[in-house]
Every structure is written in structure tokens, then in C-alpha cells.
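idk why but the lab printer keeps eating my pages so im just putting this in chat instead. protein + NAP:
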Amino acid sequence: MTLNSGYEMPVLGLGTYSLHGDTVKNSVRTALESGVRLIDTASAYGNETEIGEAIREAIDDGIVEREDLFVITKIYPGSEMANPEEAIRGCLDRLNIGYVDMMLLHHPDRNDVKAYKAMEKFVASGQIRSLGLSNWYIEEIDDFIAQVDIMPALVQNEIHIYYQEQDVVPYMHDLGIVMQAWYPFGGRGHTGEILSDPTILEIAEAHQRTAAQVILRWHLQRGVVAIPGSSDPDHIRENISVFDFSLSDEEMERIATLDRGTKFDWY
Ligand SMILES: NC(=O)c1ccc[n+]([C@@H]2O[C@H](COP(=O)([O-])OP(=O)(O)OC[C@H]3O[C@@H](n4cnc5c(N)ncnc54)[C@H](OP(=O)(O)O)[C@@H]3O)[C@@H](O)[C@H]2O)c1
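predcted complex ->
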């Protein structure tokens, strides 16, 4: 999809929260070999160095070109947003892949506007291409936008079949902001419930697909970019193999009724 910054972003990616060392390197490598071109990380995940290494190795091995990749990272509230230039440079140095495709503010913070303005300077110098926000909702977005120059291109929030953000998604879309789903499967420790939801299993059976694939199709078809996390090569390949089937309008409506308005995390 084309972002309001003019850059293109893949509609499906790999999440890397809680993956470290060789585990995250293997995940990124498998993802890139399988056709995934969007990788999500964050300063707070403590894995940018390994992710940068895996990307540079894949480029050196001819698996992918830098221009075809879209790497997202984030800076964190507290000391990072109080000293944003240093935090941004830290991300760029740890990743060491030339530029970052998108940088997000990880959460609202007392210094969020200051931190965003610092990111705007790095856009001007070409080290960051697009900007966005994470864990931002309707009540915070308008006030924030009024204080910055570059319109956020993306908002990354908790979104899954039990917490669909049926108000936030159209609100952001109307502003020209892309929505991205973290915890598309509910997050580690909660996937059992979502991936064994009876309605999802019924739809999966009808398409001869897995529950994970049906859920990712649902995200895609409502215009939400999902970034499922995985350290399992089979899961990574399964998650990117969702472009050869589609859900009917009736199936989309059935999944919409599963919304409980309940989050798995507090933010
Ligand atoms: N902005 C924020 O505040 C924020 C917060 C949380 C997360 N995030 C981002 O969002 C990404 C996604 O969230 P998440 O990774 O925490 O949770 P998630 O994607 O909802 O779920 C990850 C879990 O699903 C399992 N899984 C993945 N594919 C599967 C498949 N095809 N079949 C069965 N199980 C499967 C994984 O296990 P295996 O490893 O065994 O595959 C892992 O246990 C994160 O990695 C991170 O990049 C952002």
C-alpha cells in the first residue's frame, strides 16, 4: 500500500517482540527467504542489532535488496523521548542498514511532541523515510497532529478478533493513516484462545486453511496491516501464504461479531 508519505509499505510483516539472538536472526532470515518484506522492531525489544545483521547478511547473499525492504522501529517513553536525537541515532546505529523506513513513537509520553519533531529532522536528512505512532487512540490523535508538521503515516495498536477497534480503524483511515495490528493472534500466551475460536475454525475448515491464515486474511481485507510474531519457520511461511484465497463478505461479518472489546495488554 502507498502511505501518505509517498512510500510503499508491504501489507503483511513479521513482528519480533521478545525474540533475541540467533532466534530473531533465524526468524528474519526465514521471513526474507519466504517473501516477507516488512519487519517490525523497537529500541525496547533489544534486538535491533541482530535484526540489522540478519538483513545485511540477506542482502549480501542476494536474497533481498535494501530498497525492497520496509523496516519499522520505535523509540520509547522516558529517557529516550526526553533525549530523542540520541535515541534515534541509537536505533540507526544498531540497525545499521542505511536508513529506517519508518520510526514510531512507542507510546504517548510527556515528551512525545518533542520526540516526534526530532524524528521530523531525521526525515529531512533522509535517515528516516516515514513517521508514525503506536498505542494512540481517537482521544489523543487530533491534538497531536495539530502540533506536528508531518502527518503520521501509520498507527500501530493492539487489534485482533476480540479487540477490533471498530471505531479507531475507520477514524484513522479517514485521516489517511494506515492501521497496523500488534498481537494479531493475541500475543504470546494468549494465542490458544484466538487460534481455537470456533467461528474461526469453521471458516478455516471451509477454506482448507489454518486459523492463523483466516485471521490474517481478515486483517488484510479490512485494510489493517498485521505483523504476526514468530520464531517458527513453518509458521512464518504459513503466515505469508495468504494471498491465494479470500473471505466472503458474510465470513468477514461473522468475524466482526466476535469483537468483545477486550484487550490482552494494558496499553
Ligand atoms: N507497539 C506495541 O506496543 C507492540 C506491542 C506488542 C507487540 N508489538 C509488535 O507486534 C508483533 C506481534 O505481536 P506478538 O508477536 O507479541 O504476538 P502475536 O503475533 O499475536 O502472536 C505471536 C505468537 O503466535 C504464535 N504464532 C505465530 N504464527 C503462528 C501460526 N501460524 N500458528 C500458530 N501460532 C503462531 C507465535 O509462536 P511461534 O513463535 O511458535 O510461531 C507466538 O507465540 C510483535 O512481535 C511486535 O513486533 C508491538
